[in-house]
Write a structure and sequence with these properties.
Elements (H helix, E strand, L loop, with lengths): L1 H4 L1 H17 L5 H4 L1 H19 L17 H28 L1 H5 L3 H20 L4 H29 L2 H21 L5 H24 L7 H4 L6 H32 L3 H28 L2 E3 L1 H18 L5 H33 L3 H24 L5 E2 L2 E2 H20 L18 E3 L6 H14 L2 H7 L13 H13 L3 H11 L4 H8 L3 H15 L4 H8 L2
Antiparallel strand pairs: 1-4, 2-3
């Protein structure tokens, strides 16, 4: 209750710091249109709140407990989970074979499906004869509708610059918990109707207003996937390990969800922890981003949390309910973080490779949420089956640990022979370029310090975007790194810049990086804009060639 009452001032504080953050270091887009940022961030926050009440939570937090029998919850969550994951897979293939359909994502249709799904759940409480039918139908409609709503948001965030897109997504994620906990101030009976009647249409309105500012004349939106099948195959080959890491953590959350359905006290923890994790993750990222530049990928996140998650599962059969509550909360907090980072990673891939945002997000989401469905089934049967007198929870722990272990081996390239990304010089990380002080001032300090550091130390701290196998090959590579720091170039832009400086044509760069020529031209345009130059010779002059 105290958390909910702190909503107005807490949300305002988050927004204030976000606005301050966005205006630093040249983030003038915030001053250009704070209202637009406000609309997109708050709209995404409302959307996450709707998800938390139906898609990700352990129970229906705002429906009467007497309605939530084991049969009802199993029917709903199984139908919803399979429909949700299936919708992501369908979106991936649909964006590849019917790209025109992906451009015309029907926000109104997705909102209508979510509304209809919520209406089915409400109707199931009164139409006792058709309760299970309505519950199953509601699960399918909510699963497909929420997945459909995710796609325009992903397209929107991907269409912006990395700085803009990540900021608006993070701020929305930070605001969502305050909206969610504020529902505790509203009677349950009213909340059940408030979500479909108010919040779902509000989500649709906000995403519609937000997508109006999208720049659609970008390679990611103009690309016809079947004309560049090699580009899309390479993207899947480069990122299946990252998707598997996300999927294994989603499986862990699915196991916890399945267990939570049968234990009311755990379910309450799961719902709260999911939203609390969203706030903590977003707040930490904002603070770090304000103070420093950093780059990381989903595989790195998995390696960090893996020891904690697998240890938690191994201890699961031996410790009491208090530990189970703690582990459930931590698992869902991690899942909230990974879900946010997955969107950022997919947006980065779309920008850097010029591929359809729906395709790559559908690929990641399909892997993640199908594995979550499998984890859900595994967790749900834990209370009903015993083998040789042992609780099935023991075997749940073993299976979960086994899957996580295999994922770690695959992610590190020790289980399968690593796929060589022939066209990609480096893998695209999620990039956060600090804006705490004017970029030119930071760049001047960084360039001076970088010039005094040994090359080996620089490689350990900040791997070169333009190097092969982590080696600064020559002076050109070194100078490209200096320009990257000074002008806020992304990893991919630095790669393209070095290749241009070395005399490669647009066609040869596209061939080397396995992207379209149109995408190369877009990167070159961004590079010249950031460097305030107009032709290659000026670039060579800046590099001292």
């Amino acid at each position: 209750m105290k958390i909910a009452s702190a909503f107005p001032c807490g949300a305002a504080l988050v927004c204030y710091h976000a606005l301050q953050y966005g205006t630093g270091g040249g983030g003038s887009y915030m001053t250009q249109s704070a209202a637009r940022t406000h609309v997109s961030s708050w709209g995404y926050a409302c959307f996450l709140t709707v998800n938390a009440t139906s898609i990700w939570g352990g129970i229906f937090p705002f429906l009467p407990l007497e309605f939530q029998t084991a049969e009802v919850t199993l029917t709903f969550f199984l139908a919803q989970a399979l429909a949700f994951g299936g919708a992501f897979v369908a979106s991936m293939f649909g964006s590849y074979y019917i790209p025109g359909g992906a451009r015309r994502m029907l926000v109104a249709l997705s909102a209508l499906l979510v509304f209809s799904g919520s209406a089915c759940l409400i109707g199931a409480m009164y139409a006792t004869v058709a309760t299970l039918v309505l519950v199953a139908g509601g699960g399918v409609l909510l699963g497909v509708g929420c997945a459909g709503m995710f796609m325009p948001w992903q397209r929107y965030f991907a269409s912006l610059s990395a700085e803009q897109g990540n900021l608006r997504l993070i701020v929305g994620t930070a605001i969502a918990p305050f909206v969610y906990f504020a529902f505790s101030l509203v009677p349950i009976a009213l909340t059940a109707f408030l979500i479909p009647l108010v919040f779902v249409p509000l989500c649709g309105l906000c995403v519609t207003l937000s997508v109006r500012e999208m720049l659609v004349d970008q390679p990611m939106f103009e690309d016809v996937p079947r004309q560049h099948p090699r580009v899309y195959r390479q993207a899947v080959a480069d990122y299946w390990r990252s998707a598997l890491c996300v999927g294994s953590l989603a499986l862990a959350s699915g196991v916890i969800r399945g267990i939570a359905l049968l234990h009311e006290e755990i379910a309450a923890v799961v719902n709260s922890a999911s939203m609390l994790g969203s706030f903590v993750s977003a707040a930490v990222l904002l603070v770090l981003w304000y103070r420093m530049s950093f780059r990381f990928g989903l595989t790195s996140v998995f390696r960090v949390v893996y020891p904690v998650i697998i240890t938690g599962f191994l201890l699961l059969p031996f410790l009491g309910p208090g530990y189970l509550n703690l582990f459930a909360g931590f698992t869902y907090m991690v899942f909230s973080l990974v879900q946010m980072l997955m969107m950022m990673q997919c947006a980065q891939i779309s920008r850097d490779r010029g591929i359809n945002p729906v395709f790559i997000y559908g690929f990641f989401g399909g892997v993640a949420y199908i594995m979550q469905s499998g984890g859900f089934l595994l967790g749900w049967v834990s209370d009903f089956i015993s083998v040789d007198g042992r609780a099935w929870l023991f075997f749940v722990a073993m299976v979960s640990s086994y899957v996580l272990g295999l994922t770690l081996l695959a992610a590190t390239g020790t289980l399968f022979k690593p796929l060589v990304a022939k066209g990609t010089v480096t893998m695209e990380p999620i990039e956060f370029l600090a804006n705490g002080e004017p970029r030119q001032q930071k760049a001047a300090k960084g360039a001076k310090a970088k010039a005094d550091k040994p090359a080996a130390k620089r490689r350990r701290n900040r791997p070169s975007a333009s190097e092969d196998a982590g080696i600064i090959r020559d002076r050109t590579s070194k100078q490209c790194l200096v320009l990257q720091e000074a002008h806020g170039l992304s990893t991919r832009e630095t790669e393209v810049m070095e290749l241009i400086a070395r005399g490669n044509s647009m066609a040869s760069i596209a061939e080397r990086l396995v992207i379209s020529e149109n995408t190369v031209r877009t990167h070159a345009k961004h590079i010249y804009t950031k460097l305030d130059i107009h032709r290659r010779q000026e670039l060579l002059d800046m590099l001292g060639e």
